[in-house]
Amino acid sequence: MKFLKNRTVLGVVCIALALIICFAITPLFNASKSSTMKIIRIKNDVKIGQEITSKDIEVVEVGAYNMPSEVLQKSEDVVGKYAAAEMIKGEYVLSAKVSDTPASENGYLYGLTGEKRAISITIPSFAGGLSGKLISGDIVSIIAVDYKEKGETLVPDELQYVEVIAVTDKKGNDDETVTVKPDGEEETELPETVTLLVTPEQANILAELEAEGEIHVALVYRGTAENAQKFISAQEKYLEELALKNEKENENTDKPEVPQKPTQSEIAEDKNSAGNSGENNSEIDKIIIDPENNSDTQSENNSDDNSETEVTSSGESV
């Protein structure tokens, strides 16, 4: 009799559970599956580092069931941000794929303020780009072959000290890229271009050399940012002096000359200026770098060497 009572109780419990599942849990489960939510989806392909605009995204309504919490739902969380990873059309936008700042690989381009320009020049040969050894932060001189079709190979005064901000291969990658061939052999992509941080005047000269001449890049300095700035400051000082000199020459050519008989004091002054000719010519300041302060290039064997390296405007060391 107890056994039957137990079976009866057990059956009632099972029936009650079945009713709860059918009329309570199942409708809730179906409702959760049928519920929808609005999310952000990529409308146009977006490359890494690219700023995302309203034209690149669209708001769509999808099923909310099993949707990751990282999927962004508001357009204001995406528009104006930068792509931290490449996104293709139809892809949902995840919070991890957007950033408030540009991607680090091309962040240097977002640091421009309008005073300087970033311009790339083609490396004509393996040797022309320092055999692929150039890196961001290097100070280089630009050697022009057959400069202005005069048959001369020289370093233009305007391009004695220039900063490298990127070295890029033919695929647009700034970092060294290793490609694995079908046979398993690794092949390193060599740099194709060098991007330099220059003034507008320097950019014009580089564009002319890129179009008409042949360019070689010579390494002048690699080391601390403080020492590198000394070279840049010297180049900027020279460019300022050159601009002032050209401005004065233009002012003199614009003014009509009226012949006048020179005074004795003017004659004496002309003689003095003639004797001092060449002293007022603009030259790039000589930069002296103490090897002990160049932590990036100092070797242990030379730790006690107090010699100094003098860098002249021609890029030679004395």
UniProtKB/TrEMBL annotation:
InterPro entries: Pilus_assmbl_Flp-typ_CpaB, RcpC_dom, SAF
Domain SAF intervals: 37-99
Pfam families given in the database record: RcpC, SAF
Region (Disordered): 246-318
Ranges annotated as biased composition (Polar residues): 292-301
Bias type Low complexity, positions: 309-318
Coiled-coil boundaries: none
The protein's name in its UniProt record: Flp pilus assembly protein CpaB
Compositional bias ranges of the Basic and acidic residues kind: 246-258
